[in-house]
Amino acid sequence: MATRETIQLVRRLLAPIARRVRLTVSRAVLDLINDTEGMQLVQVDLLSDELRSDVEHFQPYGFTSVPSQGAEGVYLSVGGDRSHGVVVCLADRANRKTGLQDGEVAVYHRDGAYALLDEDGHINLVTKTGSKTKLATGEGLGAFLSELHSAISGWTPVANDGGAALQTALTAWLALTPPGDS
Length: 182
Known about the structure:
CATH 2.40.50.230; 3 domains; 3 helices; single chain; five-stranded mixed barrel; about 30% strand; four-stranded antiparallel beta sheet; elongated
């Protein structure tokens, strides 16, 4: 059996390692962001009195954004070294688009505009004022483009009208076939 002194010695020897492991992952709150470099650099608050500057913010390939001050993220200490960290995700609970259905995907702006990919494969665009457009995809998009081609093919140019005849043909076609209707 281990003696009390042996247990205390083991605890004392493992304490620095245990602390390092506990501090490997932290919640971060965004203070500042620099989006001029190849990798975004952020300043984040970690623990109550711990501020980290010039921390790299890793984002998925092909996607980028500039989160608002106060966004929350995950700070990882590389190799357990608290002074060498990266932020792997920043989210903004105050502005996140909510109310999506199972499987839906949205790209949103803090001012309320968003694009939503719904279960039918449509792309729904909503402006910050609430104006909505549903873009057709797949077969609906093909039909939309075919009808557009027919409208343009049926147009007869009128000399010196500054494109008024084309505008009239397209306006008439759009009245019958709003963009995105499938």
